[in-house]
């Protein structure tokens, strides 16, 4: 009946190992908002214990509450333990090098965010630093005598950066204005304040603080989403390696990150990748400290280029590519325990999998099968990992050491979110079809919870953002297919050209083609799904998307409106010209549109939704956050204004305290109430 179709998943009852009759109620967005979220996996080097963070939701106080947990791995039958030190607040917990001490960041004494230490009992915390500024990130030195921390400071080659920054912050301001002489003036959801994230070595015994990059015009970790993964300390404790971009006056146009080395006692920096003008990232030292592995792109100005692996012999300086012909972009990169291979994660045909890459041969071996591999740790007895799927939030597992794939026969290590056994999820499967240029395109279809054979169901057609992203076999707390299934909708998601995990050429195909090639994929995917899945009611369908998905909804409104009874555009681009001059990361708009809007405005108009707004007629819900500096809120206001001028049924949901995403629990509930109310209004019956 269908070409190239394969069933990837079954109902959540099988996933959770529970009998179907135990399930009672559909999974809803309210259930999703109250789930506990597992993250921050680490395994002790000395004891069979895993350390992880659980974030629960306090809906009444409109916040998430983190707790630190330990789980014994041998034997795994013992229940997980919540550490009492959680009560004082913490973030970024890590094992110390001895595998006994646990470090974390906290402002528990009412001061700034500092580094603290506790033991495995987790009852008493002792401060390890008392710096004048908040610590943004940290790594403990291999000998445990100190840490390399990141602080937001005013760069200076001649003055103590911490003292200078503290003094400047204390100085009174004459007036509320801020004067800028270069961009970035704002980034993601924060206005620039003149500080840079810089690395410092802190000696625990003496309290001595050594600046490792004084005066450097750049950030480590990078803004806005960098962390301690942007730098690493050599096994001998003498050198720090980090990835950073020199800012200058061209930072918003540049993706030229380089890998630097810095003596931990202070001294001159060495740029190890100056020859590559594209992105170099994630430096990782081999266990013997002789080889530096890192990720590298080839094309300057393109943030979605393929990250391949480079290996640098630190003694000779010679560098070589590893698995150069493997057509996947590496995300997480770690060394194996024995130093003979690299362990990496990558998107792969609608999944996010773990792979092993041999150093000698470059052979790539998959280590996981399906779903989304969220985090992993290799132990002497195998792997411990976090994995999610479209019908499961992240779960902590121990791999079966006898299995070839770590997620085959893996053991669930905790009872967290055990109540999901009483929820009904929609069954889902992957399909494929000939898309643009007759190339194979993949998608997923999800049946509504409580699906009954022979019935037809309204459809939520979800369009992912990025655009170099994927709506695959993964869990989301913002665009969760199972919440639509729980509300009685079937779901269709297409990984159109531009999506990740299908090879770099497939990813490249969207650049300068935002409105034609992906649209053709969406149209052909929709037609294929309607024919292949009779339960889809094409007369009761709505299209929804955010970011690029919001752009596509705005584009669809004027170029492919016939199938849709309603549209939802979250933080979508309305006018490509104004977007190019008001977004912060200008390299993105210039690459994707083929040039500067000042020099080539016609290229930005090639797929400009505003030029087709005169043809809009489908009811649309527009959503935007005022702190969204990636796609500024004026884009949403403009779209809503156009709808109102045309007399199209429309609503605008504005969040004054949200950025490109909606993160606060009560806001997320309002978002879902509004979106599902909009869908119900227009798709409850044939119109």
Distance between the termini: 30 Å
| Poorly predicted runs | 1-23
Number of helices: 12
- Examine the secondary-structure arrangement and name the CATH architecture of the domain at 421-683: 3-Layer(aba) Sandwich
Gyration radius, rounded: 25 Å
CATH class of the domain at 421-683: Alpha Beta
Strand content: 25-35%
CATH fourth-tier homologous superfamily of the domain at 421-683: Alpha/Beta hydrolase fold, catalytic domain
Strand ordering within the main sheet: 33-34-36-35-37-38-39-40
What is the molecular shape? globular
Structural class category: alpha+beta
Care to describe what's here?
The protein has about 675 residues and is α+β, with helices and mostly antiparallel strands. The chain has a domain at about 420-685: Rossmann fold. Helix content is about 15%, strand content about 35%. The protein is built from twelve helices and 40 strands. Strands 33-34-36-35-37-38-39-40 form an eight-stranded mixed sheet, with helices on both faces. A hairpin with a 4-residue loop joins strand 3 (about 50-60) and strand 4 (about 65-70). The longest helix has 19 residues, at about 665-685. It is globular. The relative contact order is 0.09.
């Amino acid at each position: 009946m269908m070409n190239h179709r394969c069933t990837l998943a079954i109902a959540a009852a099988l996933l959770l190992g529970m009998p179907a009759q135990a399930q009672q109620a559909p999974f809803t967005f309210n259930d999703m908002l109250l789930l506990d979220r597992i993250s921050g996996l680490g395994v002790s080097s000395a004891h069979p214990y895993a350390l992880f963070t659980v974030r629960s939701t306090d809906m009444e106080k409109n916040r998430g509450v983190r707790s630190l947990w330990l789980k014994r791995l041998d034997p795994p039958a013992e229940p997980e333990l919540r550490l009492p030190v959680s009560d004082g607040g913490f973030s970024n917990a890590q094992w110390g090098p001895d595998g006994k001490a646990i470090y974390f960041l906290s402002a528990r004494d009412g001061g700034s965010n500092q580094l603290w230490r506790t033991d495995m009992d987790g009852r008493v915390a002792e401060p390890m630093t008392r710096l004048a500024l908040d610590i943004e990130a940290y790594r403990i030195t291999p000998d445990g005598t100190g840490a390399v921390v990141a602080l937001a400071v005013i760069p200076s080659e001649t003055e103590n950066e911490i003292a200078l920054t503290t003094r400047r912050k204390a100085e009174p301001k004459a007036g509320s204005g801020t004067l800028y002489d270069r961009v970035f003036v704002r980034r993601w959801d924060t206005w620039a304040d003149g500080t840079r994230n810089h690395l410092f070595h802190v000696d625990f015994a003496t309290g001595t603080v050594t600046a490792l990059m004084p005066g450097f015009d750049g950030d480590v970790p990078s803004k806005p989403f960098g962390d301690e993964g942007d730098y690493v300390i050599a096994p001998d404790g003498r050198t720090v390696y980090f990835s950073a971009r020199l800012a200058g006056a061209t930072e918003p146009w540049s993706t030229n990150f380089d890998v630097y080395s810095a003596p931990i006692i202070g001294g001159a920096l060495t740029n190890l990748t100056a020859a590559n003008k594209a992105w170099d990232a994630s430096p990782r030292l081999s266990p013997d400290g002789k080889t530096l592995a890192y990720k590298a792109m080839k094309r300057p100005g393109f943030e979605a280029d393929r990250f391949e692996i480079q290996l640098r012999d630190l003694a000779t300086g010679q560098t070589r590519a590893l698995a150069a012909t493997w057509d996947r972009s590496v995300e997480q990169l770690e060394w194996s325990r024995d130093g003979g291979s690299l362990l990496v994660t990558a998107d792969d045909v609608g999944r996010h999998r773990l792979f092993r890459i041999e150093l000698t041969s470059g052979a790539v071996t998959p280590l996981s099968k399906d779903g989304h591999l969220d985090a992993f740790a290799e132990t002497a007895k195998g792997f411990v990992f976090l994995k999610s799927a479209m019908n499961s939030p992240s779960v902590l597992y121990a791999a079966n050491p006898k299995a070839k794939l770590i997620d085959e026969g893996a053991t669930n290590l905790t009872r967290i979110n055990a109540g999901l056994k009483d929820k009904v999820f929609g069954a889902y499967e992957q399909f494929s079809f000939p898309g643009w240029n007759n190339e194979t395109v993949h998608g997923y279809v999800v049946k509504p919870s409580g699906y009954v054979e022979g019935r037809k169901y309204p459809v939520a057609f979800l369009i992912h953002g990025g655009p170099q992203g994927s709506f695959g076999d993964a869990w989301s707390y913002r665009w969760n297919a199972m919440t639509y299934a729980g509300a009685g909708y079937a779901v269709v998601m297409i990984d159109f050209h531009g999506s990740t995990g299908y090879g770099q050429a497939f990813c490249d195909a969207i650049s300068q083609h935002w409105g034609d090639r992906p649209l053709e994929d969406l149209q052909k995917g929709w037609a294929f799904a309607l024919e292949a899945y009779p339960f889809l009611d094409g007369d009761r369908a709505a299209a929804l998307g955010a970011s690029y998905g919001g752009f596509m909804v705005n584009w669809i409104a004027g170029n492919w409106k016939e199938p849709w009874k309603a549209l939802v555009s979250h933080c979508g681009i309305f006018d490509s010209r104004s977007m190019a001059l008001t977004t912060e990361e200008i390299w993105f708009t210039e690459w994707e549109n083929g040039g500067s809007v000042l020099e080539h405005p016609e290229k930005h108009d090639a797929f400009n939704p505003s030029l087709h707004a005169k043809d809009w007629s489908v009811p649309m819900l527009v959503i935007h956050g005022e702190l969204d500096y990636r796609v500024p809120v004026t884009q949403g206001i403009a779209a809503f204004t156009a709808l109102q001028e045309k007399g199209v049924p429309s609503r605008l949901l504005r969040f004054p305290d949200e950025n490109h995403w909606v993160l606060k629990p009560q806001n997320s509930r309002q978002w879902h109430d509004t979106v599902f109310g909009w869908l119900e209004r227009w798709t409850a019956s044939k119109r």
